[in-house]
Amino acid sequence: MITCSFENGNKTSLRHITVNAIVVKVSQILLGKRGTFNGKPILEFGKWGLIGGFFDRDENLVQAIKREVMEESGWEINDLKLFRINDNPNRPMEDRQNVDIIFIANAVKQTGKSDEEVSHLKWFDLEKLPTKEEIAFDHGDNLELYKKYLKEKFPLPILG
């Protein structure tokens, strides 16, 4: 797990930034079942989630999301589209009040394997997604919003 130290010395008073991707192939979405880090269960262990994570030092948005998707799924992605910036400080099951930047990305090809943070990968039809209780954090809300976007084609990105 990431450990951050801020100028005020309090690890929990400032917010972190994460990136996640709605990885699309034809009409399916790739989700990963949350696994372990250094052998210990990660937050929301065993639930399905979007593919993503934290920035590494000196990365920009595109580098971070491409790296995270590769590390957690082995998939190369392209055609990135900024979908949503979720800055809700009351996101469910969040321990750091992460600000989440979510992309839509096309799956190109799988050239690697997922790391231990993902115990299982699965392509889901949009109409056959896991239940909300089986999905980590508020990722289910993002998937519902994505389905709405496909029908209505409203302007992106969505803020909030």
CATH fold call = Nucleoside Triphosphate Pyrophosphohydrolase
| Class of secondary structure makeup | alpha+beta
Instruction: Give the tally of structural domains.
Output: 1
How far apart lie the N and C ends? 26 Å
| CATH architecture tag | Alpha-Beta Complex
Order of helices and strands: EEEEEEHEEEHE
| Total beta strands | 10
The proportion of residues in beta strands is 35-45%
Computed CA radius of gyration, to the nearest angstrom:
15 Å
Q: What's the helical proportion of residues? A: 10-25%
Mean pLDDT: 91
**Can you tell me the residue ranges where pLDDT is under 50 for at least 5 consecutive residues?**
none
Number of helices: 2
Biggest sheet, open or closed, and with what strands and sense? Answer: 8 strands, mixed
Shape: globular
What is the CATH C-level name? Alpha Beta
What is the CATH superfamily?
Nucleoside Triphosphate Pyrophosphohydrolase
